[in-house]
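User: Sequence for protein mizu-kussei 1 below. Tokens please.
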Amino acid sequence: MERKSGFATRKECGHKEWKVLKAVEPISMGAGVLPGCSAEAGADGELMYMRAKFERIVGSRDSEAFYMMNPDSNGAPELSIYLLRV
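Assistant: Structure tokens for protein mizu-kussei 1:
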């Protein structure tokens, strides 16, 4: 069964995108800064990233939450992001 959760667009990866993907490939979970990735990313050419497993919970039509799950813990989320429509 296919679950629809949003809209997506296909985009071809250019040289800059492949460089970033290769830099985060060995990282399984974490957040940080990749220095010198692209001049458009920031004033110093740094790119911030967050890579993790997120669980999505829909509360209602106007609310949803994303929980960043740590595989080493007892199931408690490391980070919670709540989105509410007002």
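Residues 13 and 71 are 29 Å apart (CA to CA).
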